[in-house]
Amino acid sequence: MRNLAFLLLLFVSIHGFTQLPPKQAYPYDIRQIHSGHSLTDPLFGQPWPGQYVNLMTDVRGVWAGDDIGKSTIPGSPIFWRWDHDSTISPSARFDIADWELQIITEGIPIPGAQSSPVDLTDSYTYLSLYVNNAWQNGNMGNGTPTLLWTTWTSLDGTEGPWRPTLDEYEAYWEELMDYSNANRPAGATPVYIIPGHRMMRRIYDDIQLGQVPDITSIDELFGDNIHTNSLGDYAIAMIHYACIYNESPVGLPAQLMTNPPQGFQYPSPSLAHYIQTIVWEEVTNYDRTGITDSTSSVAEKENTSFLIHPNPASTVLHLSNVTDSDMNYSIYDYLGNTIQSGIGPEIDVSQLETGMYFIQVGESYEVFQKL
Fold first, then answer.
1. Pairing outcome for strands 32-36 and 68-72
2. Is residue 221 a contact partner of residue 203, using CB atoms and an 8 Å limit?
3. Residue 184, Cα to own-chain centre: how many angstroms?
4. In Å, how far are 9, 12, 211, 266 from 16, measured between CA atoms?
């Protein structure tokens, strides 16, 4: 109980009751669709099937490509995708019933960000349409949550000086997240951010300090003014892994492609370790991801960890990644009082009052929100 008391104190002191609940860790086999443009495409190509798809195939031990959908239109802002999504297969708008997680990004430049005054109305409106459509119609009517993939502008300064613009655009990305969360359906899982902009900002700043192995200029992660090369694609794969599965990428392979084409660059072991390390630091030190540094690295992760879904939950909470002999659970309130105990994997939480709770299985704890 000392460990639980410590976790409760830490949770209350860090999160309070005004912030979003911690993000759920999704299972490796979650069916995910990625709506975007050419800054989404590195997950799937250069060359096909892409470093991220190959990574998840390696992690799962079976082909993962059928569970990771690409729904992109080159250069498209969200409003354009919404109006033309019938031309894409799979469609993040019309085929969302087949998918359990939606990852989406806005076009670059963000529509309205260059106007004076800044007007993000289109981005607010159409991101919210995607978020609400996914929750109301996704996953065969069971609700599909959304993550917002944030990106960067052109290195040539088309949208403004590159490094300062990363900071400027952060405010816009956060406004989009806040608007979508304020207007999401009752009971919908909050939108969280996959902070690509912070990852690039960190790498750029570390390059100036001479702290990035093998890299002396941010250009060395790009193939042109905005599109990443294979090294940048590797970083994109790492941050998606961290933000979708709530796991540190430290310890993942440096080489994610077999028989790549001539000119393909693998990160050196030292560069791969650097990217993995800073990705996890940026993800766990940005409250918009919903992830804290309470998850072990790949090399340290214990087989006894468990997953819960959905989170938040209103009626039934499901346990997964546990053996039949480990189905015993206990639920505690934020004061450490035992509220409920039983045997999973299905847990009826419909009688719990609205709020935050801890669930214990074995020696491990997770936090969930009761709606």
1. parallel
2. yes
3. 18
4. 10, 5, 35, 42
Residues in the chain: 371
- Give the global pTM: 0.79
Task: Give the position of tokens 């469609």.
Answer: 91
243 or 14: which carries more pLDDT confidence? 243
Classify residue 38 by burial, with Cβ atoms within 10 Å: 0-12, 13-18, 19+: middle
17 pLDDT above the threshold of 60: no
Q: Which CATH number fits domain 2-10+304-370: 2.40.160.10, 1.10.260.40, 2.60.40.10, 1.10.10.10?
A: 2.60.40.10
Query: Where are the alpha helices (H) located in the chain, listed in sequence order?
Result: 2-15, 51-60, 78-84, 121-137, 162-182, 196-208, 230-245, 269-284
Dist. CA 56–CA 25, nearest whole Å: 15
In the prediction, which pLDDT does 299 show?
A: 45
